[in-house]
Design brief:
The protein has 417 residues and is of the alpha+beta class. It contains 18 helices and 12 strands. Strands 1-2-8-5-3 form a 5-stranded mixed sheet. Strand 6 and strand 7 form a beta hairpin. The site of protoporphyrin IX containing FE has 30 residues, from helix 13, helix 14 and helix 18.
Length: 417
């Protein structure tokens, strides 16, 4: 009899599992024995009216699904693999207003417009301001450290730069930043009971952001400025975003650009502090390959999903039209078919064809260059200003279904004398 590949009831999207760990041994087992495997779920627990999904674990298959939107839709059930059991279908339908959950040709139109705000030139123009912000964040964290030199790296360092970067990109006025930050934080935290953020509070915060962004768009239409908002909404035609579309785009940025980068930075710091040889190497040589390896190592987005548009086949399995397919970036990024020593944190890894920013299809992360820039800037600032940081506790992990999140990481600098 073949050995069972997984214990009964094992589910890669179980928030209790991800609160505990990323299931790397189980991913490795599936990649070897059953790279595309049906994961049964109790009807209704995910917000979808079905009884499970296919787990896709190999690098090549994750890429294949991502690059074939005509076979694997982001729209039919959205790209989010699991919602709360209490969510109603109409709330899932609303999520289709954001680009992440659209298919071509709608997706192509919106993506072509918003891409204008993410050109290499646009990102380069943020660099100086973000470098100064990274330095300020690190300096403030040092000043705020307790008498024993300890502080929480997540709230004092990792949270700040991603929020500042999005505010800088959109051109949110300094006076409005704290309320926009507050809404963003409320919107993404509702899976973890510790934050006591109910789905209602999350939805309310999302509405506040949409309406703030729509007002901003209306304002810029009347009085254009030299910013991305003015660029995207300039005129109400097919080549520009409507005010509603702009509102939903800002929501997507607040969700997609915040927690992902925050967790990459936190996992990166943890990886450095638990691999001192890599930290020493970084401080000495600052390799330009570092940020990509941090994203591979951390894989902040464990998975997204697609839904099959027709009967098809993948990894030897027959996939039926309407089946949900989970693409597990965390597993792909440790596939030994692609990476030498995948379980080694190596900041000089090159080439590094990781799928942490997606599998290369039409939805490939729009903010990748911004994220890489942020990671570079913050670690440069840390290496300059607190080179002798040490770990002062284990990471406290976030309860979430598809994010590899850390909500607290105690670190310490040498005590103030
Ligand atoms: C380390 C940080 C980040 C990670 C790991 C990450 C990861 C991802 C992943 C996995 C996708 C989906 C790709 C796919 O379905 O093929 C995605 C899409 C996206 N990301 Fe990122 N992301 C990060 C940072 C950012 C930042 C900083 C921004 C913007 C400020 C951003 C904006 C977006 C947007 C708008 C999409 C949707 C693109 C589309 O649907 O066409 N991301 N990201």
């Amino acid at each position: 009899m073949p050995c069972p590949a997984l214990p009964d009831g094992f589910d890669f999207t179980d928030p209790d599992l991800l609160q505990d760990r990323v299931p790397h041994p189980e991913f490795a087992q599936l990649r070897q024995t059953e790279p595309v495997r049906w994961i049964p779920q109790e009807r209704g627990i995910t917000g979808f009216d079905d009884e499970g999904y296919w787990a896709v674990t190999r690098h090549a298959d994750v890429k294949y699904v991502s690059t074939h939107p005509e076979l694997y839709s982001s729209n039919l059930n959205t790209a989010v693999i699991r919602f709360n059991s209490s969510i109603q279908r109409d709330q899932i339908e609303i999520q289709k207003m954001i680009m992440l959950n659209m298919d071509p040709p709608e997706h192509t139109r919106v993506r072509q417009i918003v891409q204008r705000g993410f050109t290499p030139r646009a990102i380069r123009s943020l660099e100086e301001a973000l470098r100064n912000r990274a330095r300020e964040i690190v300096a403030t964290a040092l000043e705020g450290a307790g008498p024993d030199g300890s502080f929480d790296f997540v709230t004092n360092v990792a949270v700040e730069l991603p929020l500042q970067a999005i505010a800088e990109l959109i051109g949110i006025a300094q006076k409005d930043r704290s309320k926009v930050f507050d809404w963003s934080n409320k919107m993404v935290a509702y899976d973890d009971p510790e934050y006591a953020i109910t789905e209602e509070i999350g939805a309310e915060a999302a509405m506040e952001i949409v309406s703030y962004a729509m007002n901003l768009a209306a304002d810029r239409k009347q009085c254009p400025a030299k910013d991305i908002v003015s660029q995207l909404v300039a005129a109400e035609d097919d080549g520009n975003l409507s005010s509603d579309e702009f509102g939903f785009f800002v929501i997507l940025l607040a969700v997609a650009g915040n927690e992902t980068t925050r967790n990459a930075i936190t996992h990166g710091m943890h990886a450095f502090l638990t691999h001192p040889d890599q930290w020493e190497l970084y401080k000495r040589e600052r390799p330009s390959t570092t940020a990509e390896e941090i994203v591979r190592w951390a894989t902040p987005v464990v998975s997204f999903q697609r839904t099959a548009t027709q009967d098809t086949e993948l990894g030897g399995q027959k996939i039926k039209a309407g089946d949900r397919v989970g693409i597990f970036y965390s597993s792909a990024n440790h596939d030994p078919e692609v990476f030498t020593d995948p379980d080694t944190f190596d900041i000089t890894r090159d080439p590094n064809p990781h799928l942490g920013f997606g599998g290369g299809g039409p939805h490939f992360c729009l903010g990748k260059s911004l994220a890489v820039l942020e990671i570079d800037l913050i670690f440069n600032a840390i290496a300059d200003a607190m080179p002798d940081l040490t770990l002062a506790g284990d990471p406290r992990r976030l309860r979430a279904a598809w994010l590899n999140g850390v909500k607290e990481l105690q670190v310490a600098t040498p005590a103030k004398g």
